[in-house]
Each structure stands twice: as structure tokens, then as C-alpha cells.
Amino acid sequence: MENDILTTTEPNTLIVTGGAGFIGSAAVRYLLSSTDTRVINLDNLTYAGNLESLASVADHPNYVFEQVDICDKGEVSRVFKQYRPDAVLHLAAESHVDRSIDGPSAFIQTNIVGVYNLLDTARDYWSNLEGNEKERFRFQHVSTDEVYGSLGKTGLFREDDPYKPNSPYSASKASSDHLVRAWRETYGLPTLITNCSNNYGPYQFPEKLIPLVILNALEGKPLPVYGRGDQVRDWLYVDDHVRALWEVLTRGEPGQTYNIGGHNEKTNLDVVKTLCAALDRRVPSRHPGISRYEELITHVKDRPGHDKRYAIDADKIQQALGWVPEETFETGMEKTVRWYLENGEWCRRVQDGSYQRERLGLTG
Hints:
This protein is an alpha/beta fold. Helix content is 40%, strand content 16%.
């Protein structure tokens, strides 16, 4: 498919589910600053959803917030009827592997039942549209590379690889991917699926590796590294990801899956050491007995069923839609560290008492 013959379909009104979360809020900020689309942010404001991440766009004339749980089908239907969207960008999900080990039920409800509710509501809504409105409607489902399981030392995940999820989280996302595909094949709903690698950047909830390491280091706390830290991940800067999502939504081919990767394979230990070095340069340690933050690294018991390596083959989205990441691992990490150093108050406020950077996911 050649770039110059692609049709661009920008929605007038777009429902973004999970728009107060990490990737969702980045998407909302991008959409309101770079497009003319009216954004309906549908979020239940669970522990990882925070409207402070959207303070800069809260008064934007094209922005509407609806506090709705996607498991509440009646409320989801109301939102569709009230705002009449041209598209859905579905990001709402329970997303932390460790939490899925401790309590898989919430992941089944949100990531499977919630997706069913959205799909069935969207199908009913779409089937009653006519003409151009029906032709241009899109349902885009945002998923993860973890559905493919674990790679060996070589190879890359491709869109046609078989699914082999190994955690309750990845199993729930694999299930939702299959539901989206089934609604396309059975009912004709114009769906798109994206599977992305590990995201990082500003406004990420502190249970994830990068903000956890930054905040623990600044407080002189241990920097936990699972096992030997030799698990390999592909790291994708969140702003690059949301640009890719917009390209897929507006120019992707319904029924297709697009893998989105950052071309940045690093071991978890390398990531932690990179963060420590960046902090050494910017805010040298003043903690007693600690001259370099790397001295805080503490190897802990590995996560049950921890996948060894993820890596994305992003050739399809590059060839079909012309998307490539703009940030390297080094530039993205520098931006991320700088943001957390400058936004300590945000970090303090989003940790509301339910999570204080303790170890999760030890069940089993």
C-alpha cells in the first residue's frame, strides 16, 4: 500500500476510553493540541486514572469528560447516543502484570467484559448509521505485545504470530483482541487492532519500572530489579505511540493489526542503570553512604511466569502508514527523567494511599 494513495478519515467526534490514564492522557493531549477532533474522554478514574494529567486541556472547547465504567453497558450506551462518535479509541484497561497476579478478577472484568460491552454497543450504534457516517466509523482497540508470549534471544513479534499469553494480564488482553477480531469477522464492524511494546514517558503511574526507579532513587530507597534483570523489552516513548495510534485510526485499513515498537531493545538492568546515570548527572546523590544511584540496585525474587524477551517488528506500520518513532532510547529517557524531576508534586498527589511503591505480584 503506497502512502500517497491512502485515504485520511479524521473523526469529528472521538470517544477515548481510559483517557485519564498514562497513554490515554497523552493521546487526549495530543488530539486536542494537534487536531480539530472533539474528544470525549470516558474514564472510570481508578487508581491509575488521574485528571491532573489533563489539567492543561481541561478547559479546551473540544474536550468533554465522562466518568463511566466500561463494564456499565447502560452508561456506555448513553455516551454513544449522546455524543454520536465517528470513532472509538479504546485504551481503558487494567494493565499492570504484577497486579494481575495478585488479583486477576479485575482484569477479566475490565479487559474482557468491558471490551465486550464496548463492542456490542458500538455494533448496535454503527448498524443504525447510514451512508457516509457508517462508512467512516472506526473502532480501534489498543493492545500489547505481551499477547505473543516470550521470545528467545532472536526474532521479533509480527502481526501474524500465534498468541501465547503467559500472565493473567496478557491472557485478558489476548481475549479482548480475539473479541475485536470476531466482531469484525462476524458482524462487519470496522475494527483496527494495535499491539505496542513497553511505553514510558511523562505522567506514568509510579508502579511501573521507570517512574518507580526514579522516585525510589531520589528518596534513597532500594531499586528493585527482578531476578538478574536480564529480561529484554522494547521501549516506546509515549508521544511516539500516540502519533502512531492517530495514523492507524485515520489511515489504517479496517480489519488489520499493526504492531507499534520503539526499536529500543534493552534489558531491565540496562534501563535501571541508564536512569541512575541520568540522575547522577542532574541531581547527584546526597544520601549517606551512596555516591552513585546505581549502588541502590537490589536484585529481588523474579515475578512468576516472567517473560524473557519482547521485541516488535514494526515494518508493517512503517511501510503502510509511514510511521517511525522520533525518540531514541537516550533522548526519550532524558525527557522522562527531566519531567519527573520537575513534577514531584504530581507524583505525590497521584499516590493517594492505595499504592506506596510496595512490591506487587508475589502470589505463586
